[in-house]
Each structure stands twice: as C-alpha cells, then as structure tokens.
Specification:
- There is one protein chain.
- By secondary structure, the chain is an alpha/beta fold.
- The chain has 44 helices and 30 strands.
- Helix 7 crosses helix 28, helix 9 packs across helix 29 and helix 18 packs across helix 23.
- The relative contact order is 0.10.
C-alpha cells in the first residue's frame, strides 16, 4: 500500500475554523501544527499538562472533517482504562458535535461516527485472538491471571530437582524472581535459554579469576555472594523456560506472552500488517515514553516500515517506570524506527513537534518543575530537544514554598498545618481545594499520619500497603510466612515478641544461639570445595562474620527443633522455664497450622485468625464493634478470595504463591499508578510519587526531600541478589543503560566494579558500573520529582529536615530542594521556615532523648515509657508517659470479667446431647429478645449501600445479622452476577477501557458456559449502553448520611454534553448505571432497591460538586432486556430520615 499524503487534498477547514464551530478555545500555534500535520509518522513531545489529549482528539476531528479518514479508520492507543475512556469520550463527543454543525461525516448516516480507542494490552489481545493461528497458537489458548501464574511457578520451584541450597532466598522470593524474569523476557523479546547462556558465561568468567588475599580484607563472602547471585539467576532463567513449557502444555498464556506473541505476529506475518494498515489509516500512540521494547516492536512491525501516519505522543521527563521495561530511549528512537519515505526511494526520520504550554500549573509551580527538569535537557538525544514548559496565558501566580525544619517530627507538623490552612473549610465540600502528600517511600507515611491525627485532619492512605501494615493483618501474614518458609525469621520475631507470647530478651538470645548452632552443624555436613569456584560455596565460609553467621541461622528451624531441657548454648545460656514452656506451645501451634496448608486460602486464614484469637481480640477493642472491628481482617480475606478466584478450577490455592503475590503487589503498588482514584475535596490523600502519575490536585506537599531519601541512595540494578531482573546487556533499550564490564584481574575487582560493596575503597573502581548506575538512577529520581511537582495546580510545598528520625548524622537538603531554595526570596519561590545547621543543634534531640520501657510489658496496661535526657539525669526531670488508652482498656476488661463472674448460669434445656437438641436450643437462643440476652446492637460507622437497602427493607433482620453474624453460603446467582460484571468490563475494554491489571480479572472465560451468561450478554449488547463509552467503570464512592458512611461501587458512569475537562460543568448530564442479572422487581421492592441508586447519586454529586438534578440513575436488567430509569430518587434529607427510621428498630 502506497504511503498516504494529503498533498492532493485541500483542507477545507483549519483547526481554528473547527474550534469556532465546536464552540471551544482556539488551539495554540503548536497545537495547530500537530492537528493539521501531514499524513505521515510524527513524534509529539508533550510536557505535563500540555493538553495532549485535547490535541489528539482535535487531530481526529480535523482529519474527519476534511474527509481524509472516516472515524472508524482511526485507532487510538493508551495505557490505562481511564485514559482510554477520556480520549474516546472526547473524540466521539466532538464528532457528534461536528455532525450537529452540518459537516458531513463519512458513514455517519448509517451509525454514529466512532473512532476505536484501546489500551496497549487490549490491542495486543485482539491481534493474538484474530491471528494467533498464523504463528501456531491454538485458537482455544486461554488467558491465565496472576493467581494461576504464581501457582504454576510455585509448583515448578517446589519440583525443581537442582541444588538451591546455596541460595539464601525465601521460596516466595524465588517465585517472584521467576515471575519478574519471565515478564522481562517477554517485554524485551529475549529467550530464557539466551539468558541462561549469558549468565553462565558471566559466572564462569568471575569464578575463573584469581582471588587476591592482598586486596580488601573480608571480601571473600562478597565475591561468593555475587557468584551466588549469578547461579540463582541462572536457575531462575531455567525455571522461566520450564514455565513457558508448562503453559504450552496446558494450552494457556499469561499477559507477558500476549505482548510477545503480538510482536511475533507483527514481525513475522506480513499479511497482518497489511490488514491492520488498511483497517486503521491513522494511528495515535499515547504515553509512548512508557512503552516497552516489545510494544515498540509490535507497532513498528505493523506500521513502521511504510510511512504510515503514526503519531506518537509522550514526555521523556515523565518516564518513571524503567523497572518494568519502559524507557525514555523508546521515545527518542521513534523517528528512526518510523521513518518517512522520500520520493527517491530513501527515507528520513519522522519529524518532531512540541506541545510546551502547561495548562495545569500556575506560573511558580511550573517554574519549579522546569528547574528540577533542566539537567535532563543537557543535550539533544538523536537530535531531539526536550523544551521547557511555558505557562498558559491564563495561569495565575500560584505559590511554591520551601522549608527546612529542625527534625522530621516538626516537619510533619508543619506540612499538616499548611494543608490545614489550605483546606478552605468555610466553603462547601465540593468547592474546597483538593490536597495530597506525595512521598518517595511509604516509610514516610507514619509520622505524617500521626500529625494528621493530632491535628484532626481527615486523610486517606491510598493502596494495599496500608492494609498489610495493620497490626492484626500483619500478624496473620507473619504466621502464614512462618508456616510456609523456615527462612522467615523476621516474621517469627513479630510473633515471639507480640503481646500473646511475650518472649523475653534472654530467651530470644538463647533461641538465636540455638539457631546459630544448628546452622554450624548444617555447614559442617556440607562439602567445602574452597574459595573462588562459586559452585558449592557458602557466603559463610573462611572469613564469615558473626553478623553473616546470624543471617544464615533460622529462628523458625530453632523453634521447630528445640533442644532437650537443660541444654546450654556455647555462651553458657539456657532457656528459662516459662520461656521454654511458651516456646513449646508456640511450636506445637505452628506445626498444627503447617498441617493445614492444604486448605483453601480463605479457610486457612480464618483458621489462623481463630488460632491467634484475633477474631475475638478485634471485637474487644474499645470504641469499635461488629463489622467495623473486623473491617481490616475482612478486607484481607477479600484480597485472598480475589486471588483464589483466579486459581485453577478444582485446585487449592498455593500459599507460597499467595505470599509471593502479596509481596509483588506491594512492590508494584510502590511503583505504579493506582487505578480508580479520584482527588477528594474532603480529605488529604497520602500516596507515593510513583502512584501519583496521571493525577492532579490543587495543593501538593512533597516532604522528606533530603539527600539519601529523595533522591535515594539505594536502587535496583540487575546484579541485586534475589531479584529477577533481566541482565541489562540483554534488554531492548540497552543502548541507554550502563553496563557491567567484566574484564578485571581479580575476583575482588570484578565483583567490586559490579556492586561497589566496600564503599571506602570505591576510589579503586573509577567509572564503575555502580557509579554509572547511580547516575542513571539520579536521572530517574529527577524525572520522578518532576512528576511530583507537576501534580500541583496552585500550591506546591517542598520540605525536608535537618534531623531524620533518630539518625546521629544530620541530613543535607535534597539536590532538588536545594535547586529550589537557591531561588527563595524571588517571586518564584517563597521561603518558609528554614533552619540553619547551628539552629538545629549539634546533636539530634531524638538520638539524645532515649525512650526506655520494661519489656515484655503487660498488654492490658501497655508499656510504661520514660523519656531519658542525658543532660538531665535526675529522675524528676524525666517524663513518664503512660498511654491512657491502655489503662482504660484494663478497666473495661476487668469490668467485663466481673460481669461474667457475677452472671447467673443460663438454664440448660434437658434435651439430650443430640445434634437436634443443640440446634433447637441455638434457635431458641437466637430468637430470644435482646433485653434478655444483653446484646444491644450498634450500627457500624461504615456500611455498604446494599446493607443500607437491607436495613430500609427489614431493619429487624439486619439487627439479628449484626447481633450474631452468620456466614452466608455462596450463591450461584451471586457468582453469575460477578462473572457478568467482569464480562461487561472486558466488553468496554475491547473499545479501549481495559488496562493490564484489570485484564487479569477477565481470564476466567471458562465459567461463562457453566453460569449461562449468554442471554445476559445478548441482552446487554442489544441495549443502548453497549455502544457507549463510559467515563469510568466501577468507581468506588462513599458519602456520609446521618453520621453513617455509606460505601459502594457504581457499575458504570456515562456523561452527555459539557466539557470533558470539568466534572462540574453545568451543561454536562450524568447517568449512573447498575447492571442487574436477576428478576425485575415491582412495586415496593423496586422502590426500596432504588435507594441504592439514590446513595450513588448523592455520593457522585458530593464527590465532584455536581448538582443532583444533573445526575440520573438506572437499573438495567440484562437477562430480560428491561431498563428501569428511576425518577424522584431520594435526596439527602429523605435518606437521613430513612436511616433514622431504620436505626430505631435495629438498635432497639
């Protein structure tokens, strides 16, 4: 097919003409160039907030209006479902408006003009589904999600017959490493056999070098460690090959395979490229800086060699996902990979355009972002310049405030005070400024949460890690880790030192000595082949330090193999009688739980809860009752159920796989954007800087800007032990990455150049791999700071502190903070509190101020904590702190115990010891009046919208359920509804609403036949909703009514009219839809059920400041083809009245 040009076509309408017809602002000159550019490949470098989505949609409108393409000949591709939905909505809404202006659109007379918008993974899925047979894929090859991937790999790790004794890594770590390496191989189109060969060469080269005894003392274990890393990674690459073979045998593929297969089809089957180029005459690739090598090859294979009009849009300064395969180098490579054919048969690089007007940020916020990004623009790459952003003509001044506080506690308080001042509390909630705190790591959250609590500022912590750190959830995970893997001494320590067992320091020391003794005995039984070979060597050889010996010991093993009574360690210590008794009981308990690991995951977690007494413990907490007390445990159970639902049919869920998934999910959350999040007007949102990409707030605080934290000094390289990173030498973007030179004279030089362990000797390794990797890391951190700064519209707070925690060494301001501080006093930057070193003191007050307490302590009293000041040794100058909550808890529990002792014994009906008699007595007890049992019902502070409907329908029944919660058996109808909702999500994903993470939920296609989804699917496809593009699918919402927070998820939200940039545009009309798979209700039943939509409508109104009259809501009963548009939905006052009426009977 000849390359398309527009030279023979006269453009009837200019971008400015169309903007006037559509009633929108005229494009900037830069936007106009992009919108009306020739039909040829083009790279658009678009800075943060520069209007790239609007420009891409206007580009489509211009092409269609001028008759250059039909709407269905346009393909838009982006990463997230949210971004795809926004782009699709803008394009299709403008095409509708275009038709209303009288401009004819090709094909619009037959059906509404629609462009195709997809996510990268959804497009790859369609390609593999339609053309997989061309490369030998069977048509029934199924998709597996994360759960099945982790279980499959966990089985392979357990079945591995090779030696893993050298690997100081937990099983879950190896599983995660294999999953990571498999994904890397897929993203970079590398065969695992090639990885294994590369690692073998690297290992053998290092092992063959001489070990110099004259060099750095104590480096033997370090050399052995990197040799061990190469061996372990080699084993992982072998397991990756086994994983691929297992998937082939099972006839399945994962999402890494999806992109790999799609890239193969694009490069190997020319006919597919011809089909796609004829189908989509114009292609728009969004967020191109986040694409992987495989995605680049996919689109290059289809469209790159033919001068096809592919427009790639991206910002190299926002390339922050290098750890998952993305690279700014991908964007710079585009012009050469998608050349423009010349008439003489040659080709030239694709032209480059720029969008440099920032429409989001105020003047001073933008100046700060440009300042931190300036070093990234040092010189053009491949002739491509990255220009600084310019303010919009309507930008206000805004404010950037830099602060340097004496210590981290005062910094947290200052950040919270500034956020509180910015709250606009006198305004209605919908008109208040949105606020967020962006942290480099989650470790920064705790002091900020304490400061927010102290100040009484509502806040929301976004993401899974918040749940995993909740004490009762952490206790469950600790037990699961210990019964799964004997290496997890770290988790056993939590159990040993917790309030239940309270093992003292003396007994802990003896247990550690026992573990070390077992480790020494184990080493004596192993062969020692000497230093330097790396094959059978242990990092605890010759010059093993006590610290390294301690790391090799396992407390879990020591607990399982307690010595005979009277045993004495090498240091002459023995267990106390009480300590040994508790350890024996704990060991027996853990053995019992270990024997139950074959249970279904939710059942195992319930058993652990019961064994630990957590189900009772959470209910005994003051101030919380019932459902509210269990909310964190229930949320964790939900996560386990979600994981289990992805398991293979008929198989139990693998515990090792689940724990590996939890660890990977936490790591991924720290690095990737969080889906389904909307800025809130009523609370401060805490999240990581990585997770903030794609979001924006009025006020943003970026605390902890100190050297060593942001930018951090620790960073991942592929040489990190236990990780599953693909060697950088094999990555598709290796030209832009540093490399480890392995041509050295000794093993110390070879290993030291790789990882630079012994930093005091680093001058011996100039320009080492570690140095160059550190420079690369600093660039990534700078891009991350740029992303964080550009999230703020009007106020940016950047701060750090002289003293961090209890560190004895003072911190230095981050290079990013220092660059802004240099401008303090100018109109661009306001200097807040700035503490000079002499003002902060010569010593950290938190290091000098020692907190002492007797330990273990009585959990009912809490610890008696004393604050010790060295400069004031007199006892009367030492403050004693006793948490009042602990005292109150002891009093409450002692009172409750007295009530139990004084209570009259219940009369027992003499019905015999039969099951029937016991069941009859249980029914009588359950039916007894509340005042006879003393079990008054208290409504939880948070309930779901469906629970609210149940309460309005039958408050007495809900009261009974709250009073004595009973498990509800799994219903076929409920699973049918869940499966249908997943299918609807997949349907919207096929038109551009499905991203990678969401796609995993749609892997269970095998359930559709069993659950008879076909009638519902056909009913949905015949409805008016099937061809519409929702703004968002399943957004979580919550709102407070009468002091009770109501929560839920709206199935889909649609918008008609108004500006797609503004939720509160009065011209916009919103439709909330809830899919129903059951029977159509009538009369009062329908009226009661409509309360669910009333709650959703009120929550959506408050969340986005939308008038209630602009929001409608409907039930769609898909199996019957019936839509119930609910009119006269209850408003706020009526919902409060309904709640009050329902609470009286429920709590009586």
């Amino acid at each position: 097919m000849a390359p398309m040009t527009q030279e023979t076509t006269v453009a009837q309408y200019t971008p400015e003409d169309l903007a006037e017809r559509l009633g929108q602002y005229a494009p900037t000159p830069e936007q106009s160039v992009v919108i009306s550019s020739p039909l040829e490949p083009r790279l658009v470098v678009a800075g943060a907030g520069s209007g790239k989505t609007a420009t891409m949609s206007d580009r489509v409108v211009w092409l269609v209006a001028n008759g250059l393409v039909a709407p269905d000949q346009v393909l838009g591709v982006t990463f997230t479902r949210k971004a795809a939905g926004e782009l699709a909505h803008r394009i299709n809404r403008k095409l509708d408006l275009l038709t209303e202006t009288g401009i004819e659109i090709e094909g619009a007379e037959e059906a509404p003009a629609r462009a195709s918008v997809s996510t990268y993974h959804s497009y790859a899925h369609t390609l593999v589904r339609d053309h997989g047979m061309r490369i030998g894929l069977e048509p029934d090859t199924g998709m597996i999600g994360e759960a099945q991937s982790y279980q499959m790999v966990a089985r392979l790790v357990r079945a591995y017959e090779g030696d893993l004794g050298f690997a100081d890594a937990a099983s879950s770590t190896i599983v995660r490493g294999v999953i990571k390496l498999a994904a890397d191989c897929a993203e970079h189109l590398v065969e695992p056999e090639d990885v294994e060969e590369f690692l073998t060469r690297a290992h053998d080269a290092g092992a063959s070098l001489p070990y110099s005894e004259k060099q750095v003392e104590g480096s033997h274990a370090k050399v052995a460690s990197i040799l061990g890393m190469l061996r372990l990674r080699r084993v992982m690459s072998h397991l990756v090959a086994d994983y691929r073979a297992a998937k082939d045998e099972a006839g399945v593929m994962d999402y890494g395979d999806l992109v790999r297969y799609a890239a193969r089809i694009a490069s190997e089957v020319d006919a597919v490229g011809e089909i796609e180029r004829s189908r989509f005459r114009v292609v728009l690739l969004d967020e191109f800086q986040d694409t992987s090598h495989a995605q680049l090859e996919l689109f290059r294979g289809l469209y790159g060699h033919h001068g096809h009009p592919v427009t790639a849009v991206g910002d190299p300064n926002q390339s922050i996902y290098g750890f998952r395969g993305a690279s700014a180098g991908q964007l710079f490579a585009f012009p050469g990979q998608f050349p423009v054919p010349d008439p003489d048969g040659g080709a030239r690089p694709a032209p480059v355009s720029y969008l440099t007007t920032a429409w989001r940020n105020s003047l001073n916020v933008l100046a700060a972002a440009n300042t931190v990004a300036d070093p990234l623009r040092s010189e053009p790459v491949n002739g491509i310049e990255v220009k600084p952003l310019a303010p919009s003509p309507v930008a206000g001044d805004g404010e950037v405030r830099v602060s340097w506080l004496p210590d981290s506690e005062q910094e947290a308080a200052a950040v919270v005070e500034a956020l509180k001042d910015a709250a606009d509390e006198d305004l209605p909630v919908a008109e208040r400024r949105t606020r967020a705190v962006l942290c480099r790591t989650r470790r920064q959250f705790e002091p900020l949460m304490e400061a927010l609590d102290t100040a009484g500022v509502p806040y929301e912590v976004l993401g899974l890690s918040g749940l995993l750190s909740i004490p009762e959830v952490a206790d469950v995970i600790a037990v699961l880790q210990v019964i799964s893997d004997p290496r997890r001494s770290d988790h056993l320590m939590r159990i040993l030192t917790g309030p239940r067992w309270r093992i003292g320091t003396a007994d802990l020391m003896v247990l550690q000595e026992r573990a070390s003794a077992l480790a020494r005995n184990r080493r004596r039984a192993e062969p020692d082949t000497g230093a330097g070979t790396g094959e059978d060597e242990d990092a605890t050889n010759q010059d093993t330090s006590p610290e390294e010996e301690s790391e090799a010991a396992s407390l879990v093993e020591a607990l399982d193999w307690l010595p005979e009574p009277g045993w004495t360690s090498g240091a002459g210590r023995s267990f106390s009688a009480e300590g040994r008794r508790r350890l024996e009981r704990l060991a027996a308990e853990l053995r019992s739980l270990s024997g139950q690991t074959g249970l279904e995951l939710p059942a195992l977690i319930r058993l652990v809860e019961k064994t630990l007494g957590l189900d009772v413990e959470v209910l005994a907490r003051p101030g919380v009752t019932g459902v509210a007390a269990r909310r964190h445990l229930d949320a964790f159970l939900d996560a386990a159920r979600d994981f289990s639902h992805g398991a293979e049919e008929g198989s139990s869920t693998d515990l090792t796989a689940f724990l590996a998934w939890l660890e990977a999910a936490e790591e991924r959350e720290n690095g990737l954007g969080i889906t389904g999040v909307e800025p809130r007007h009523d609370a401060v949102q805490l999240l990581t800087a990585h997770a903030s990409k794609g979001l924006e707030w009025d006020v943003v605080a970026v605390p902890g800007m100190v050297d060593g934290q942001f930018p951090g000094t620790t960073f991942d390289t592929w040489t990190a032990h236990g990780s599953g990173h693909l060697p950088w030498d094999l990555r598709g973007d290796r030209q832009s990455l540093p490399h480890w030179s392995r041509d050295w004279a000794t093993q110390q030089d070879w290993a030291g150049h790789a990882v630079g362990w012994w930093l005091k000797h680093q001058e011996a390794y100039p320009d080492s791999y570690r140095d160059r990797a550190a420079e690369h890391h600093l660039q990534e951190e700078r891009r991350l700071a740029y992303v964080a700064f550009t999230r703020a519209r009007t106020l940016l707070l950047v701060s750090g502190s002289h003293w961090r925690g209890s560190n004895k060494t003072p911190a230095e301001p981050s290079v990013f903070l220092a660059e802004l501080a240099e401008r303090a006093g100018t109109p661009e930057v306001t200097r807040g509190t700035w503490t000079e070193p002499e003002e902060a003191g010569e010593a950290n007050p938190f290091a000098g101020r020692k907190l002492t307490a007797w330990w273990p302590f009585d959990p009912l009293d809490g610890p008696v904590v004393r604050v010790m000041h060295p400069e004031a040794p007199d006892d009367e100058d030492r403050a004693t702190l006793l948490p009042p909550r602990a005292r109150a808890r002891r009093r409450a529990l002692e009172t409750a115990a007295d009530w139990v002792r004084q209570a009259d014994p219940l009369e027992v009906v003499d019905g015999g010891a039969t099951d029937l008699a016991r069941q009859a007595q249980w029914v009588l007890d359950r039916a007894a009046p509340v005042n006879h049992r003393g079990a008054a019902v208290e409504l939880p502070s948070h309930i779901s919208a469906s629970t609210f409907v149940e309460m309005a329908d039958d408050p007495e029944a809900l009261a009974r359920q709250l009073r004595r919660p009973m498990p509800r058996p799994p219903a076929h109808a409920a699973r049918r509804g869940t499966a249908f909702h997943s299918w609807v999500e997949d349907h919207f994903g096929s038109t551009g609403m499905l991203d990678f993470e969401d796609a995993e939920d749609s892997a269970d296609h095998w359930v559709e036949d069993a659950l008879d989804l076909e009638p519902m699917k056909q009913g949905f496809l015949a409805s008016r909703w099937a061809d519409r593009v929702p703004v968002v699918v399943e957004p979580p919402v919550e709102t407070t009514v009468g002091g009770v927070t109501l929560r839920g998820r709206i199935d889909a939200v649609f918008r008609e009219g108004g500006s797609s940039d503004a939720f509160d545009d009065p011209q916009a009309r919103w439709e909330l839809v809830d899919w129903k798979t059951g029977a159509v209700p009538r009369g009062r039943d329908l009226e009661v059920k409509s309360l669910q939509l009333a709650v959703y409508r009120l929550a959506w109104s408050r969340l986005h400041g939308i008038p209630l009259q602009n929001i409608s809501a409907s039930f769609v009963y898909v199996a019957h083809g019936v839509e119930k548009s609910m009119h006269d939905l209850a408003g706020e006052e009526e919902l409060e009245r309904i709640l009050a009426d329902a609470i009286r009977p429920a709590g009586s």
